[in-house]
Amino acid sequence: MDPVAQALARARGRVVVVFLHRPRCILSRQFETEILADADVRAWLESEAAFVSVDAEREPDLIDRYAVQELPGALVFGRGGAELARLDAFEDPRAALRILKSAAEGKDILADAFEAASHDDPFELTRLAELLAERGRRDEALDTLRRAVDSRKNVACPNCVGLYFFAEAVARLGWVHPPALDYLRSLRERAEERLLLGVGANDDDADDFVSLCCALRDRRRIHEVYEGAEGGPARRLLGKHAEHIRLTELRHVGYRWGDPSDVPALERQIARHLLPGAPSVGRFDTFAERARLRAAAGRLLERLFTAGREPEARAVCELVIGMDASGSVWTNLIRLAEQGGAAALAAELKARAALDIPRLPLRERADVRKALAPPEG
Description:
- By secondary structure, the protein is of the alpha+beta class.
- It folds into 4 domains: 3-107, Glutaredoxin (3-Layer(aba) Sandwich); 109-157, no CATH class; 162-259, no CATH class; 284-372.
- Helix content is 62%, strand content 7%.
- It is built from 19 helices and 4 strands.
- It has helices spanning 3-9, 26-36, 39-48, 60-65, 93-104, 109-116, 122-134, 138-150, 163-174, 178-197, 203-215, 220-228, 233-251, 265-273, 287-306, 310-323, 327-339, 343-356, 362-372, and strands at residues 15-21, 49-55, 73-77, 83-88.
- The chain has a 4-stranded mixed β-sheet, sandwiched between helices.
- A hairpin with a 5-residue loop joins β3 (73-77) and β4 (83-88).
- α7 runs antiparallel to α8.
- The protein is flat and about 65 Å long.
- The model is unreliable at 247-267 and 271-286 (pLDDT under 50).
């Protein structure tokens, strides 16, 4: 029987919280230990909710039915069975408890987001679009983001609301919904045309063009337009941007995804798992972004080792180490290589991890040393 239906049947008027996880998943264990095991969250779940834990690998139909975009997570259902909210692995316990309490009070987060966005506030529209995308309603999400871009003129100072924020939101949707990237490209074509025509073009037009190129991970186009302008207004307006990007790319050479439409197949496969963030490589600045990278790489490595594709697995390992060579990264890559039968790669990773131990925080060193120890027995 459907686990959600079972939980609703025994809820006795309480909200239902369905925890979706994967076995042997680091983020799933983190969700349990940092969110579900929090004293306040646990007390609330025991008294106010019917809680059920579901192995997502055994219930693929559940994932499809509710358009779950990433794991682990939790779905929150109201007394009538309507979905009210979702939790992901990157909520802190206080935020999670606040979401749960709102659901118990009958507040539908999506309905509230629709209400907040009804006045065409661009930021509220963007928030609504992200909630729609989480639920698999991608066409609606794109239409909402179109409204957000168009409604920038509704704010008190339109020129103060940069296009980059909204373009990045569209690009994130584009990783799973290609029409979003087509929309960005059409915006960029219009912005480029305004620059090249030069009639009334100003710094805001240049900023918009650069923002769209950056969101599409195609900074080369900025240089192409800059070099091809031959002294026209576009060259003058793009001058500061072209120089800034040139210096930035010298520091980050080799650490970008590139245009989402033509990145190498292996990197594109990883990027599809980096939802909903999917930032460019070289911008994994937050814990959440690094955790998404580790989770994506872990899932991909399991498949590559199973298929005996060690060269590609090595490439994934190098990508992850280059972005986030933390203690947990070393231990998990070593574990995956050993479990996948890649003894040579595991030995190489151990040797490199041993050299990296002095750089690691004290709390991470013990875990790495344990991973380096020979198997017992």
